[in-house]
């Protein structure tokens, strides 16, 4: 641990007083980089020498002023370096300097030092064997054998301010050439721990972006966005004046006729009207057949997703031990287990699919390929415009949020959209090379679409009757559960992604995240429960259900217990207790089944008069527009969350749940909803209306062809 504390002071001292780079090293580092570093070191030496020689002598005060003026920039540059921080016992692994001070450095004698070789704020990731040190002390813990590398859970890093002419590779070579750390770390007279990667004490250097250079793709996307915005504005104005004309015609008691204009292009143009779309967004349906509480559940689940991703960003905090300590508090399991919010989305997806589609489906229609073609086409056309447009926006405008000292924004995730975005459009990004992902949260879109792809099997089964539907659903849930058990036993998987990332084992992370957590075949049980519940709600839609108060109370109690057990029973594991593979696999499989059963009763009670005040609250009108925004809000929230973290000029600091919700979750949810409102009005709703026009035409043509075929059959 002494090495851990001594590093930053040694770096600064060596940079000022160290020897010149060896010839072999100079050949590996760019000439411009070496020149700029030498200029900086020379300024530091000149300033210190002149101040020491002059002292308080009046005869050289003017000389001292000139030297001070010409070289003080070098002190500012050095001052912006990371220094030994407080809370080292809390494993403060982020030694951050002053970001703005670094970027404001100007050499008055060499303007190119500022304008052409502007200083950059970088992170040096230190090769400190924390895991090995801890394993040989009394505080032995299971952790990684090395902290080396950005993104590692125990990555220790300090900030440096160097000329921009130096690449990350140049800086890594330069820092390692100083050879400040000894190869072995002495814990006692008889105990040493070797460094990883030989004698390199800096295993990686990552520099923060200084400016944004727009390319042709950025300008193309900007033009398309501008055209879309202008189209929406013109459509809104046209819609406004059309409404005025319609009102005048009604006041004059003139008979209104649908003009050829309104039936032609003008009708499609008005789908971009923010006036009409805004009203649709705020409209509260009075249809008694609509399921109550769905929008409330959807929005609350979305806020749960946001809080879960914010919890993930606390890995970058300057007090990570405090964030780990909260796992000892049972109440925090609600936050840590935000994974159930995704299962809620899968459940609602199946619920709304069966409840809305089964009434339109008959045995005769189920045999018609056109019906299923439209079924799949509807899904693609309904989601893809808003989804695709945001991916394009994310890839081009997302880098604008990647500024500041913190390494929160995933620039690689944005860059991958240019290479692998086609996987998102095919909804296979959670299957084909899932590690190379674009918009990491979009795995949910792929998994949900894959479930939708196989949903006709279950819809047709329930169309034939409850028994076929239930039997096929149980068979698939059983198969999914057995596969879940096999994966946990085969790879000895941890239960949570947090635990997987703490192991540092890339294979374990890959299997748990890609083959279990993001896999449709593992996550499908809630979706099937949703389809089954949609069928139940459909069959009981016109029925009056009277239930004994005692039975209702017991069912509410059982539902609440199932939900609480699903969330809180993992507490001992998160606290550090050992669970056997059998126990881990059982929890992973059956907790989601229990959660789905709990949701099933909640939906039934809300819509069949068994919910009381809970039902009234969850059916309040304001939930409807919030629920409608969740699709676009889900797409954009990760960009918003990371951008808000990145605005700060200090490392994230965890205080507690209330502070996090007040300063992070609520602002993120509000900002996501504001962004989602814009995206919904610009892309989701206009293209949803265009899609409905297209499908209506296709269905009308199909209907006419069927009528002709019927006539031919009669003849």
TrEMBL record:
Keyword line: Membrane, Signal, Transmembrane, Transmembrane helix
ATP-binding listed as a keyword: no
Domain Nose resistant-to-fluoxetine protein N-terminal: 30-192
Record-linked SMART domains: NRF (SM00703)
Signal peptide segment: 1-18
InterPro entries xrefs: Acyl_transf_3_dom, Nose-resist-to-fluoxetine_N, O2_lipid_transport_reg
Transmembrane segments annotated in the record for this chain: 216-241, 334-358, 370-395, 520-538, 550-573, 585-606, 626-645, 665-688
UniProt GO molecular function: acyltransferase activity, transferring groups other than amino-acyl groups
Organism domain of life: Eukaryota
Protein name as annotated: Nose resistant-to-fluoxetine protein N-terminal domain-containing protein
Organism: Caenorhabditis brenneri
